[in-house]
């Protein structure tokens, strides 16, 4: 049997990537979660993307809808402001002047 290795770091074959895709893994990140492929040197990520193609993925559609509904309404500035307050408090307690 001729095995075509996609990820030589972890010995993951094209067949294994396709099996994970059939089980619902629609992105290289999901393939990585299922098999570790693409998590070491990263040279196989483009091959994984090629195998996955751009076909329809029912799981991706469901995840996209759920993600859009679950998006937080906070802005990016809020964590920065909170972090600045923490930095000021630590600097003040240490007797330093916060920048």
Characterization of the model:
The structure is a single chain. Helices cover 56% and strands 5% of the residues. The model has no long low-confidence stretch (mean pLDDT 76). It is elongated, with a radius of gyration of 22 Å. By secondary structure, the chain is mainly alpha-helical.
Features:
99 residues, mainly alpha, two-stranded antiparallel sheet, 56% helix
Q: Can you list the strand order of the major beta sheet?
A: 1-2
- Proportion in β-strands: 5-15%
- Name the overall outline: elongated
Name the helix and strand elements from N-terminus to C-terminus, one letter apiece: EEHHHHH
Task: Please give the number of β-strands.
Answer: 2
Instruction: Describe the sheet with the most strands.
Output: 2 strands, antiparallel
Number of helices: 5
Derived from helix and strand composition plus strand pairing, the structural class reads mainly alpha
Distance linking N and C termini: 65 Å
Arithmetic mean of pLDDT: 76
**Helical content (DSSP H or I, runs of 4+):** 55-70%
**Cα Rg:** 22 Å
Low-pLDDT sequence parts:
none
Could you give the topology of this structure?
Elements: E1 5-7, E2 12-13, H1 14-22, H2 28-35, H3 45-52, H4 58-70, H5 77-93
Antiparallel strand pairs: 1-2
């Amino acid at each position: 049997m001729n095995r075509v290795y996609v990820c030589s770091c972890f010995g993951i074959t094209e067949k294994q990537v396709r099996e994970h895709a059939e089980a619902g893994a629609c992105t290289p990140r999901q393939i990585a979660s299922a098999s570790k492929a693409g998590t070491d040197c990263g040279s196989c990520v483009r091959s994984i993307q090629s195998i996955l193609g751009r076909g329809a993925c029912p799981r991706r559609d469901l995840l996209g809808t759920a993600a859009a509904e679950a998006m937080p309404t906070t802005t990016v500035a809020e964590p920065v402001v909170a972090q600045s307050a923490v930095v000021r408090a630590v600097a003040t307690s240490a007797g330093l002047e916060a920048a």
